[in-house]
Design a protein that fits this description.
This protein is of the alpha+beta class. It has twelve helices and 16 strands. One of its GO terms (cellular component) is plasma membrane.
Length: 472
């Protein structure tokens, strides 16, 4: 093996092998900016804050049995950062069309797997379109990386950027690697034994708890495998590979918080209930029978501590299957059902189980992963992400970031991706839909707002009824 190759982790390799013409494994984002920005300043920002991560200078070398990272000897930022412009008086529809086209186009595997397009002439300002392959890192990590490009004020002090290539780690010989791995394994085993003995001393019933946890994990694995396939609906169709992207006008985060508080739940409960209501309206508009068992969405669950800085990239998350009770039409009853479903999942180990499965699939043959992927993707109708963002407005290269949106890829036979992101007192909601699925993404955006308003009015009415009862 050449000395400049770094083995790819099994989990990252699993996401690499999921890439298909119908579902490119890209995390796609679009940021709208209040004013145009200087390309020179944007380049300096990327060189200082983005390219400090080795993965963005490395390409993938895949020999079938193993995959590796290798520094691209011909790396040039111009191959990844492009400047384009929208025609005429470009509106939101024009930008959505462009994002849809780019979201349907695979990245160049001969180069590091990311691209950015700076888009001039958008509503008096500009936009930045970002595409990064999922094998580099998970969506939650990449959102944090992208936000690190921004500042809290328009005029930060950027230190001078070093023009030299970042130094590569010194390569060890095969014997050194073997000895190093052996020392690591002994150290890990010693640490684990020490922690186990310490835990038993502090808590005599710790071995029983450990055995119970192992049983719970095994039970969740069996439940995941035995979960029935999704009901046949218009949301599950053979995919074309052409994506349609849309995003809604943001909700007021304070209103979402007030709604959740009035219902005795969390913001996440309220937003998942809102998504459920939007899908109910979609089924009604298409005169389609609503499944009486609900539908499931795959929700990424972060396994990386959010209070720690991201020093290395990679995928560190699991997936949980969340049932959306689309058959429950009353908003308050729907909210209660969503809340019960989420509380049940919080007590489970499903995220850890799916992460371990990805690790296992990444180590095994490609045919095993394909079959397992088909099995899991048949148990969800969509992927839904919900990421907490910054509380204050941010600036990119001096221009205010007015609306950030992103979408994670859909794997296997799943053709719908929905994303929720809080930002500066607002809640952003977006969707990407395969063109073969008969769902109008802009109509779903309207349904999302209608659904939230219905839930908010029901919550306020319920609170007023409760106050009236208390007064009497």
């Amino acid at each position: 093996m050449p000395s400049d190759l770094t083995p790819m982790s099994s989990v990252d390799r699993a996401w690499l092998r999921m890439d298909t013409p119908q579902n490119p494994m890209m995390i796609c984002g679009v940021w709208t900016l209040e004013q145009p920005i200087s390309m020179k300043r944007l380049r300096k920002t990327l060189e200082k804050r983005f390219l400090c991560f080795d993965r963005f200078r490395q390409r993938v070398v895949d020999n079938g049995d193993r995959a590796y990272w290798q520094y691209d000897p011909l790396f040039d930022l111009d191959n990844h950062l492009h400047q384009i412009a929208l025609p005429g008086k470009a509106d939101k529809a024009e930008l959505q069309k462009l994002v849809s086209d780019m979201n349907s186009t695979s990245l160049n595997f001969r180069q590091p797997l990311w691209q950015m397009h700076y888009i001039d002439n958008y509503q008096g300002g500009a936009a930045l379109l970002i595409r990064i392959h999922h094998c580099i890192a998970d969506g939650i990590s990449l959102v944090r990386v992208m936000l690190s490009l921004t500042d809290k004020t328009p005029e930060p002090k950027l230190s001078r950027v070093a023009s030299k290539h970042p130094s590569k780690p010194r390569q060890r010989s095969a014997i050194q690697k073997l000895l190093h791995r052996a020392v690591d394994n002994v150290q890990v085993a010693t640490d684990q034994a020490r922690l186990f003995i310490q835990s038993v001393r502090e808590e005599p019933n710790y071995p029983l708890k450990l055995a119970t946890t192992a049983g719970d994990v095994a039970f969740d694995l069996v439940k995941l495998g035995l979960a029935p396939f999704e009901p046949k609906t218009g949301l599950k169709e053979p995919l074309s590979g052409r994506k349609q992207v849309a995003w809604a006008d943001p909700l007021d985060l304070a209103e979402v918080k007030a709604c959740a508080k009035a219902l005795g739940g969390t913001i996440n409960d309220a937003l998942l209930c809102t998504v459920t209501g939007a899908l109910q309206r979609h089924f009604a508009a298409h005169k389609e029978a609503i499944p009486d068992c609900g539908i499931r969405v795959a929700v990424p669950f972060n396994l990386r501590p959010l209070d720690q800085p991201i020093e290395t990239l990679g995928n560190k998350f699991g997936l949980v299957l969340v049932t959306l009770p689309v058959e429950v039409m009353d908003p308050l009853m729907c909210f209660q059902q969503v809340q019960e479903n989420m509380n049940r999942l919080k007590r489970s180990y499903q995220a850890q189980v799916t992460y371990s499965l990805l690790d296992l699939f990444g180590r095994g043959p490609d045919v095993l992963e394909r079959r397992a992927l088909d099995l899991l993707s048949n148990k969800a109708s969509a992927v839904l992400t919900n990421v907490p963002g910054p509380k204050e407005a941010l600036y990119l290269a001096g221009s205010k970031l007015t609306q950030p949106m992103f979408w994670v890829p859909q794997s296997g036979t799943i053709g719908i991706g929905m994303s929720i992101l809080s930002y500066a007192g607002t809640v952003q909601f977006g969707i990407t839909v395969d063109k073969a699925i008969h769902a109008d993404p802009n109509a779903v955006m309207d349904y999302f707002r209608e659904s939230f308003e219905a839930l908010r009015h029901a919550a306020l009415a319920g609170r007023e009824d409760a106050l009236t009862r208390e007064a009497s």
